[in-house]
Amino acid sequence: MADVARLAGVSHQTVSRVVNDHPNLRPETRERVQRAIEQLGYRPNTAARALVTRRSGTIGVIGSKSGYWGPSTVHRTVQAAARAAGFFVSSVNLPALTRTEVVDAIDHLRSQGVEGVVLIAATDEALDVARSHQAAGLPVVVVEGDETKARWTVGVDQVRGAAMATEHLLGLGHTEIVHIAGPQSWTEARARLAGYQEAMYSAGLRPAPPLIGDWSARSGFALGCDDIVARHDVTAVFCANDQMALGLLRALHESGRRVPEDVSVVGFDDIPEAAFLIPPLTSVRQDFGAVGRRAIEILRAVIEGQTPPESLISPELVVRTSSVVPPVRK
User: Fold this and answer.
1) Are residues 278 and 307 in the same domain?
2) If we measure between CA atoms, which residue out of 228, 107, 83, 236 comes closest to residue 173?
3) What pLDDT does residue 196 have?
4) pLDDT given at position 51
5) 231 within a domain of the structure (yes/no)
6) Domain for residue 321, yes or no?
7) pLDDT for residue 53
8) Cα separation of 270 and 20, whole Å?
9) Residue span of the structural domain in which 232 resides
10) Are 309 and 282 contained in the same domain?
11) Interatomic CA distance for residues 274 and 258, integer angstroms
12) What is the CATH number of the domain that holds 307?
């Protein structure tokens, strides 16, 4: 640090203020010090910095080993955003999102001195654990959490996204629309169901009872075989994620029901494969990169005692050829 101070023509304390992102510095001074840091290849001693600032500079990230596209993508983007923001990341992947697993994970991270946690596990049990640790003074930002159950949450507006998908089908002329929902212990699944129901009620229609899946293609296939293929009154299905839509597509194909000629199908998430399914799948796109960056922005603001930014991110409906006007009834 002394070499940086000498090259920049400033004091040792000024270099320390730049390294620690102190706000009360003249822009030209900050720029001169940063040029000296880059020229000398200086890297702060993080252990010494932690002793001085009494901050570890480390955050925890908790996710699951489910392999689902949304949570796994958010996990990667949160870690990348955290590193870009100057944090070290301690990551925990849980085999199951039970209360015991989440409690143990947060306790493990607290023992490492993390300054906060991003929890990518918006189940009811995980939210209860997050709320208890928030009350105990540890900032916990829950991805896709229920804003009524957790103090700090971030995610795509699930209700709006589901309403957009349903309104798209309604706008095409469909009235018999079934929703294949996710497990109702997940806040995202309940929000998507609520969005579907709100759109149906707003159109003056009674929403059909939801068919409950478990996010997997297998459950979408099973529900399609057991409930959808025999119902010739149903002209459209909104699935709570693309994996269940994929399973439904196979069930409809094997039954001889054509998509989209007989049944329109809309998914949620817009996984990379959605555009290459047969037919290409209409889906609600979630900007997981924005979710990861926003999670870190909120956590950093909370840690530093500032006002967190807006927590909800707008979804986007990507229309493809799996959804068209309903067939003409003879």
Assistant:
1) no
2) 236
3) 98
4) 43
5) yes
6) no
7) 46
8) 40
9) 158-286
10) no
11) 17
12) 3.40.50.2300
Q: What is the pLDDT of residue 135?
A: 62
Q: Which residues of 250-279 are buried (b: 16+ CB within 10 A; e: fewer)?
A: ebbeeeebebbeebbbbbbbbbeebeebeb
pLDDT at 55: 65
Residue 116 tokens read as 């906060």
**Which amino acid belongs to residue 275?**
A
Assess whether 242 and 146 both reside in one domain.
no
The residue count of the chain comes to: 330
**What is the model's pTM?**
0.79
Quote the Cα angle for 41-87-55, to 5°: 100
Q: Is the residue at 328 inside a domain?
A: no
- Do both 217 and 299 map to the same domain? no
Q: Please list the ranges in the chain whose pLDDT falls under 50.
A: 47-48, 50-53
Which residues make Cβ contacts (< 8 Å) with residue 51, sequence separation at least 6?
none
Per-residue confidence (pLDDT) for residue 122, from 0 to 100 = 73
218 in the same domain as 172:
yes
**What gap in Å lies between CA 36 and CA 89, rounded to an integer?**
27
Q: Residue 111 CB: number of other CB atoms within 10 A? A: 8
Contacts of 237 (CB under 8 A, 6+ apart): 177, 178, 179, 180, 228, 245, 248, 263, 264, 265, 266
Q: What local confidence, expressed as pLDDT, does residue 268 receive?
A: 97
Examine the domain organization and report whether 123 and 169 are in the same domain: no
When divided into structural domains, the chain yields a total of 3
pLDDT tens sequence across 283-294: 999 998 899 899
The first and second tokens of residue 85, run together, are 């923001």
Report pLDDT for 44.
57
Q: What is the pLDDT of residue 323?
A: 98
